């Protein structure tokens, strides 16, 4: 029998503290197969830390259990896009996109990479170095690099935060299209972004961190930015976020 390419992931954190600061305790949540899970919450609440826990980038996490529904290890099946673009300054745009292939000594599909760079509006910048690019352009390069990794699980930390409003919508649409069948965990501060892309949305608050009940937007992603229902849902989500921030300040 051919193994399933995609799978859900359950993450259980019994306890995670940094010094005297208890961040997570008795925390359980699931990334659903082929779905986008979005995390919202006040700055500093622990969203990025939770993303790093899922990516196994936090040391001494003996109280963390990560299980995949196909009973295989998660290691090696993740593409991770951090808040910073992490482009290497001595490599040009194309070489940065293909960095993972070079590090693994794997053959790279240059034509696919070039086509993706064209799709994000960077076809004229293939040979440019990161120092010549704007923050938004660098973020688009990082997005293409993430897509090129072609992993079943994608972890993204505010991947569109440096983009202008129009570019942000375009990149959201592109990511929704190219990563539509992946298991995605997306950190964002943008309620509209979460509502456009999320299949399930959680608001994080408090110490130790608590999850809200899941918010399940209706319709297929990416949801239209002009949909009046989306704007109504945004108002409700903003109110919940405001309440979460007040709780976080107690």
Structure write-up:
There is one protein chain. With 250 residues, this protein is an alpha/beta fold. Helices cover 34% and strands 21% of the residues. The chain has helices at 47-54, 93-97, 99-103, 110-119, 135-149, 165-178, 191-197, 228-248, and strands at 9-18, 21-31, 36-40, 64-68, 78-81, 153-157, 183-187, 200-205, 210-211. The strands form two sheets. A six-stranded mixed β-sheet has the order 5-6-7-3-8-9, sandwiched between helices. A three-stranded antiparallel β-sheet has the order 2-1-4, with no helix packed on it. Helix 7 crosses helix 8. The chain is globular, with a radius of gyration of 18 Å. The relative contact order is 0.18. The model has no long low-confidence stretch (mean pLDDT 91).
Total beta strands: 9
Query: Order of strands in the sheet with the most strands?
Result: 5-6-7-3-8-9
Low-confidence stretches: none
| Termini Cα gap | 53 Å
């Amino acid at each position: 029998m051919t193994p399933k390419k995609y799978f859900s992931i359950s993450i259980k954190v019994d306890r995670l503290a940094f010094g005297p600061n208890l961040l997570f305790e008795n925390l359980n949540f699931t990334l659903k197969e082929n779905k986008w899970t979005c995390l919202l919450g006040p700055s500093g609440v622990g969203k990025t830390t939770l993303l790093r826990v899922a990516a196994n980038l936090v040391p001494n996490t003996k109280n963390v259990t990560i299980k995949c529904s196909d009973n295989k290890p998660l290691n090696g099946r993740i593409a991770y896009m951090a808040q910073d673009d992490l482009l290497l300054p001595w490599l040009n745009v194309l070489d940065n996109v293909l960095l993972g292939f070079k590090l693994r000594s794997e053959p790279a599909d240059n034509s696919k990479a070039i086509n993706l760079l064209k799709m994000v509006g960077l076809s004229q910048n293939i040979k440019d170095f990161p120092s010549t690019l704007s923050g938004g352009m660098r973020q688009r390069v990082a997005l293409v690099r993430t897509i090129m990794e072609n992993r079943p699980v994608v972890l993204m930390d505010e991947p569109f935060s440096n983009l202008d409003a129009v570019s942000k919508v375009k990149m959201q649409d592109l990511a929704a299209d190219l990563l539509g069948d992946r298991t995605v965990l997306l950190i964002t501060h943008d309620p509209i972004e979460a509502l456009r892309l999320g299949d399930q949305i959680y608001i994080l608050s408090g110490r130790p961190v608590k999850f809200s009940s899941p918010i399940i937007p209706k319709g297929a992603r990416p949801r239209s930015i002009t949909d009046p229902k989306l704007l109504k849902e945004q108002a409700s989500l903003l109110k919940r976020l405001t309440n979460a921030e007040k709780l976080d300040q107690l």
